[in-house]
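Quick one, tokens below. Sequence please?
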């Protein structure tokens, strides 16, 4: 695992420099669904500082076992409204916000524990029926609405593109997310809004993270390339 992590950091560094970006502007989120708490602990000793989880119950169990470990926790799965209360207790970032109802519930639950919850809006760029995420054309409106929630901080956008073997086929989805971010930035608000930054683009997985970085990813979500195939 140590060697795989080293290789991924090398690839991130290369993709960053080939696109004139700072290595430090890209964060590696190690996606640990189905991976044991002990293996996560090992990954952290090899330089992993952010963990991605897709299921709330699994995350709660591992979070309890790994109390105090120096990592940030990122939720990347589909979040049901009735699980928001657990999510705000664990996660520094929730990448998969795709409805007003979820924003409202996260705001209520974050307020209860005196927290400002970082979120990303998940956008369904491919308009796939099976994927969650809001449609591209509805994203600007959701961003506008979020500005009135005091316990929510909107950091940017996330996409899970359809699966292709060839990263070049995925690249248009990455550039579409970046373009949407630029459109939102330039048209939605005339000045800075206190709880919206829109700096982050969560995109790129084991098979295509280099292309994602070249298209502007700031958070890459990598599972199998670190931990191996999921059992
Ligand atoms: C599982 C998962 C990943 C990681 O995928 P790999 O191909 O294993 O790197 C990234 N993002 C999301 C949303 C996932 O569910």
């Amino acid at each position: 695992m140590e060697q795989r992590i080293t290789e991924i950091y090398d690839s991130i560094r290369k993709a960053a420099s080939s696109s004139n970006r700072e290595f430090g502007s890209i964060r590696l989120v190690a996606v640990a669904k189905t991976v044991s708490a002990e293996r996560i602990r090992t990954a952290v000793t090899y330089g992993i500082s952010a963990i991605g989880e897709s299921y709330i119950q699994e995350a709660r169990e591992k979070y309890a076992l790994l109390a105090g470990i120096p990592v940030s926790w990122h939720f990347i799965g589909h979040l049901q409204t009735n699980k928001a209360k657990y999510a705000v207790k664990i996660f520094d970032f929730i990448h998969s916000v795709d409805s007003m109802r979820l924003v409202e519930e996260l705001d209520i639950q974050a307020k209860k524990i005196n927290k400002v919850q970082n979120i990303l809006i998940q956008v369904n760029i491919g308009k796939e029926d099976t994927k969650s995420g809001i449609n591209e054309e509805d994203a600007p409106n959701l961003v506008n609405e979020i500005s009135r929630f005091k316990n929510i901080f909107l950091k940017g956008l996330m996409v899970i593109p359809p699966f292709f073997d060839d990263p070049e086929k995925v690249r248009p989805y990455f550039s579409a997310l970046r373009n949407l971010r630029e459109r939102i930035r330039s048209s939605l608000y005339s000045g800075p809004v206190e709880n919206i930054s829109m700096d982050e683009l969560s995109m790129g997985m084991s098979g295509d993270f280099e292309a994602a970085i070249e298209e502007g990813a700031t958070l890459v979500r990598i599972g199998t390339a670190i931990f191996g195939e999921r059992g």
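The domain at 2-227 is CATH 3.20.20.10 (TIM Barrel). The beta strands are 27-31, 50-53, 72-75, 93-97, 117-124, 134-135, 152-158, 196-202, 219-222.
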